[in-house]
Design goal:
The structure is a homodimer.
Chain A lengths: L3 E5 L4 H12 L3 E8 L6 H12 L4 E6 L37 H16 L3 E3 L15 H14 L2 H4 L5 E3 L7 H10 L23 H13 L14
Parallel strand pairs in A: 1-2, 1-4, 2-3, 4-5
């Protein structure tokens, strides 16, 4: 019997790699994306292309109004910073953090998983080359999984429990890229920029910087276009 | 200093009572409702009336597309049952259960709480006179609270943590009604029916049955209109 999974798919590099890993492991993958008032809605087109290319059986885009609460440079009228975010949390959580975003996304994934009878959720969080968001840490994922199995029918009826898979959690960005390339992921379909334009990614936001550093460390050329050169 | 709270407000009897309790305890209350594809969208008008009457400082209605996943009589093309749900879980979880609904609603509440700097979330779940939904149980609420404090900035920066308040958790429906009446709640503004019509609540769905039984046990007349008489 095929094992069914819901895979959160942003259109970025990480979640594309996660979908490729879930497909490699034989999961029937239902891809889930969100239109959440983000500046970078172009990522939804990327998500659709990635879902089709990597063989997801279907792809839903759910409207989620996070902009109504504000509080983030990704959804409110706060400029996206172009400074180097650094490698640790000493500078605090950046303004691109969207309050409770992964909690909300995983909750929708949980709803779909329960309707599908899926046993697995996949999310492309990494606690290595990341922006210091609290909802990318393994202790959050473990707490979510525990809560999820009390929130749903399984908590009462003892039916299929849900496992939240984070295959990238301990990988550097370079390792993620190596993994995806080995599985045939076309990173030219993906977009990571928080402030994209028709002529390319900005190259300066923290997401672009993490991506470019990852490709550099992997010794591979990033197939997408950037508006600004690499700065050191 | 005023303590800030986000109160989930459905327009029903329970959450109106919760808002009255939070106001009594001195909270500055931000009321949050959801347009989630429910059959009974009339409850949003009730929520707005209740929020205004009970002195919430503001009231947001967030669009949440749960109907896209289906799986419930409240959001999909499944008839709302009119049989008596009984008092325990032996008959299983009813088809009016909406997968992961409270998880999703609390996650949005968490997002707003983080933006507001609110320390408290309120939700009107009861584990006594309820429909057997897994996400109304105290063990779910405790797991959600634990997850919530790892999901947000507090988990990294040690700022205000969030407490999920469930003041009705151990109350019978009659006790909830008594409590609300003592605080001046006008239950004529509320609606509980899963299948309402312009001439009143159905009187037969599990939510109507729980409500009518509660008023009967409290020895108080329910101020709203019903289309069908009480059956025994």
């Amino acid at each position: 019997m095929t094992t069914v999974a819901v895979v959160l798919l942003s259109g970025g590099l990480d979640s594309a790699t996660v979908l490729a890993l879930a497909r490699r492991d034989g999961f029937e993958c239902h891809a889930l994306s969100f239109r959440y008032g983000q500046r970078h809605a172009v990522e939804l087109e990327a998500a659709a292309a990635v879902a089709a290319k990597l063989g997801a059986v279907d792809h839903k885009i759910v409207d989620v109004d996070l902009a109504t609460f504000g509080g983030s440079a990704l959804t409110a009228d706060i400029p996206v910073p172009t400074n180097d975010p650094g490698d640790d949390l000493s500078a605090g959580i950046p303004v691109t953090y969207v309050p409770a975003r992964n909690t909300i996304f995983l909750s929708f994934g949980l709803a779909w998983a329960e309707v599908l009878g899926a046993s697995d959720l996949f999310i492309g969080v990494s606690a290595v080359d990341y922006s210091g968001y609290p909802d990318c840490r393994p202790e959050f994922i473990e707490a979510f999984e525990r809560m999820a199995n009390l929130a749903t029918k399984t908590g009462v009826e003892g039916t299929t429990s849900v496992h939240v898979n984070t295959p990238l959690i301990a990988m550097t960005k370079a390792q993620i890229i190596d993994t995806g390339l080995a599985l045939g992921v076309d990173y030219g379909l993906t977009t990571s920029c928080y402030d994209p334009a028709p002529d390319g990614a900005c190259g300066r936001c923290d997401s672009c910087r993490l991506r470019r550093r990852g490709f550099a460390e992997a010794g591979v050329e990033d197939p997408i276009a950037y508006r600004h050169p690499v700065t050191t």
